[in-house]
Amino acid sequence: MPLSAAYFDALYRDDDDPWGYRHRWYERRKQQLTLAALPRERYRRAFEPACANGELTALLATRCDVLIACDLSGRAVALAQVRCASLPNVHIERRVLPYEWPTTPSTSTTPSADPPFDLIVIGELAYYLDPRDMTLLAERACASLSADGTLIACHWRHAFVERRQSAVAAHAALDACTELTKLVHHEEPDLLLDVWSKDGRSVAQREGLA
């Protein structure tokens, strides 16, 4: 099971930016790395689980026609809604992942009522999940991607008390989706960033340059 909402609500109780997404250079640089790694300039319908207080959400919104974001913490959702209040293409909800996925996976017996996502951004979430829940998240993410969809994941590599698995182990679960081609693999001592797509062409190939 994921960590409780109470744990994250407590983090936000005295600080609306507990990880320093706004002021730490590490976090601001990571946000720019995430945006730069996306193989397409524009996306139709995107999903950002674990949106925290909405700092990355606001940046992703500039690249998306529609962006659905969510978080386990009601306090984080409220902060993200304020941060993105001027962005009409952003919809922020409280959800418990991987269980409350916004699009019914195609493997379900119930047809999906929603169109697929052509971008899913998994940032600083997967290491909070145990291996079973991470496998479920990976399955639902892969099943929810459009035929030209992009999946990006970026995670802190250092150990911490609440971590249930490493960034490497979490990304390996996403690697296991055989429908996806890895387009970007970026490692630093502090972070791991990977990009997969159902469209295996490089950026230059997509533009007819290679």
UniProtKB/TrEMBL annotation:
InterPro entries cross-referenced by the UniProt entry: SAM-dependent_MTases_sf (IPR029063), SAM-MeTfrase_NodS-like (IPR008715)
Pfam families recorded: NodS
MF terms (GO), sorted A to Z: S-adenosylmethionine-dependent methyltransferase activity
A single BP term in Gene Ontology: oligosaccharide biosynthetic process
Domain of life according to the entry: Bacteria
Stated name of the protein: Nodulation protein S (NodS)
